[in-house]
UniProtKB/TrEMBL annotation:
<dbReference type="GO" id="GO:0006635">
    <property type="term" value="P:fatty acid beta-oxidation"/>
</dbReference>
<keyword id="KW-0560">Oxidoreductase</keyword>
<dbReference type="InterPro" id="IPR006108">
    <property type="entry name" value="3HC_DH_C"/>
</dbReference>
<dbReference type="InterPro" id="IPR008927">
    <property type="entry name" value="6-PGluconate_DH-like_C_sf"/>
</dbReference>
<comment type="pathway">
    <text>Lipid metabolism; butanoate metabolism.</text>
</comment>
<dbReference type="GO" id="GO:0070403">
    <property type="term" value="F:NAD+ binding"/>
</dbReference>
<dbReference type="InterPro" id="IPR006176">
    <property type="entry name" value="3-OHacyl-CoA_DH_NAD-bd"/>
</dbReference>
<dbReference type="GO" id="GO:0004300">
    <property type="term" value="F:enoyl-CoA hydratase activity"/>
</dbReference>
<dbReference type="GO" id="GO:0016509">
    <property type="term" value="F:long-chain (3S)-3-hydroxyacyl-CoA dehydrogenase (NAD+) activity"/>
</dbReference>
<comment type="similarity">
    <text>Belongs to the 3-hydroxyacyl-CoA dehydrogenase family.</text>
</comment>
<feature type="domain" description="3-hydroxyacyl-CoA dehydrogenase NAD binding">
    <location>
        <begin position="18"/>
        <end position="197"/>
    </location>
</feature>
<dbReference type="InterPro" id="IPR050136">
    <property type="entry name" value="FA_oxidation_alpha_subunit"/>
</dbReference>
<dbReference type="Pfam" id="PF02737">
    <property type="entry name" value="3HCDH_N"/>
</dbReference>
<feature type="domain" description="3-hydroxyacyl-CoA dehydrogenase C-terminal">
    <location>
        <begin position="200"/>
        <end position="268"/>
    </location>
</feature>
<dbReference type="Pfam" id="PF00725">
    <property type="entry name" value="3HCDH"/>
</dbReference>
<protein>
    <recommendedName>
        <fullName>3-hydroxyacyl-CoA dehydrogenase</fullName>
    </recommendedName>
</protein>
<dbReference type="InterPro" id="IPR036291">
    <property type="entry name" value="NAD(P)-bd_dom_sf"/>
</dbReference>
Length: 371
């Protein structure tokens, strides 16, 4: 016979009737709009004071206004979504929320404190979710009385456009919580991929490994342009150098160093690679945004001519990066980070525009990944 649940064990499997969003910044406002539109249930957004809440509600309204102006929704749909949205300070109105998601500053101590505070405000059946992009979900739940009700629910930005949600499973999470998270992601019109609670989760871990390999080649003397030429067979939407410039050099270098701390030498960040975090751009572009060369500051760090015995040809450089990505795919599968290659392919396509036919398919064709 199946085990009988303990009398004090709540059920997390019930339908969602109300959502609470902790935070009223740009990301939180986007989340509030999405939940109100797609689930069509009450959504309450909160922050430290009413001024912040009002700013969040104003941003939510502007998101809906843009959707109307672009013909995505009509005025009636906008009014319907706004009627579902409410903003109150200090967690007021959260006591009957079934799903509470935080979108506050990306700091472990801050998120731990916030989740512990709001656990005390909600009912025992409420599911707690974190939108962290890189922090340990189990670590965020370290101060909870019932950490089994916490799940990672990682959106990509912009929320309305990006189709992937990484559902992050901690070792102690209740299985009903994971299933509700998967169902909620689907109800929001997103594609959920369940991953384990490891640094970088799936997408950022693989993107960063590819980036680390490319930057290490440049550090060793292979010109950036040569590395980029060698990457063509991988069918990437942009090179790791362009990606770091796009996300912001300071942020990108921080992410790389965090992965180095978690995984060691294969993610090592060299001195010159770390120094690009002080720059704002790497490449000069014309009026059509086509690259015309490197900025003087970037060229000073990474000259266009080969330097030293470590310089490789384009083909050799491409093979090094392909092997690095394949190695990380294999490690993630061995660790159970993702269920299989299909999940990795789906996640990387939806979040990073890697090849639709699958990055693992491309790697297999190139001989970097075993069939």
């Amino acid at each position: 016979m199946p085990d009988t649940p303990k009398p004090d064990t709540p059920s997390y499997a019930g339908p969602l009737r109300k959502v609470g969003v902790i935070g009223a910044g740009t990301m939180a406002s986007q989340l509030a709009v999405l939940f109100a539109q797609k689930l069509d249930i009450p959504v309450v957004m909160t922050d430290l004071d009413q001024a912040r809440v009002d700013a969040g509600l104003a941003h939510a309204a502007s998101v809906l206004d843009r959707q109307v102006s672009r013909g995505k929704i009509d005025a009636a749909a906008k009014d319907r979504a706004l009627s579902r949205l409410e903003g109150r300070p200090q967690g007021e109105g959260f006591e009957d929320a079934d799903w509470v998601i935080e979108a506050v500053y990306e700091d472990l101590g801050v998120k731990q404190a916030v989740m512990a505070e709001y656990e005390a405000k909600v009912g025992p059946q409420a599911i707690l979710a974190t939108n962290t992009s890189s922090l340990s979900v189990a670590g965020i739940g370290a101060r909870l009385q019932r950490p089994e009700r916490l799940v990672g629910f990682h959106f990509f930005n912009p929320v309305a456009v990006m189709r992937l949600i990484e559902v992050i499973r901690t070792p102690g999470v209740d299985e009903d919580v994971v299933q509700v998270a998967v169902g909620t992601a689907s109800a929001l019109g997103k594609t959920p991929v369940v991953v384990t609670d490891t640094a970088g989760f799936l997408v950022n871990r693989l993107l960063t490994r590819a980036g680390a390999a490319a930057w290490q080649l440049a550090e060793a003397g292979t010109p950036v342009e040569t590395v980029e030429k060698g990457l063509a067979p991988l069918e990437l939407p942009m090179t790791p150098f362009e990606l770091l410039e796009m996300v912001g050099p300071a942020v990108g270098v921080h992410v790389m160093t965090e992965h180095e701390s978690a995984f060691g030498e294969r993610y090592a960040v060299g001195e010159r690679s770390a120094a690009v975090g002080q720059l704002t751009t790497f490449f000069e572009r014309d009026a059509d945004r086509k690259r015309t060369g490197s900025t003087p500051e970037f060229a000073a760090l990474f000259p266009s001519e080969a330097a030293g015995s470590g310089a490789l040809s384009a083909d050799e450089a491409g093979r090094v990066v392909a092997d690095a990505i394949a190695d990380e795919v294999t490690r993630m599968l061995d660790e159970g980070v993702a269920e299989g290659r299909a999940e990795i392919d789906t996640a990387m396509h939806l979040a990073a525009e890697y090849p639709e036919r699958g990055i693992t398919v491309v790697l297999t064709e190139l001989g970097a990944l075993k069939p």
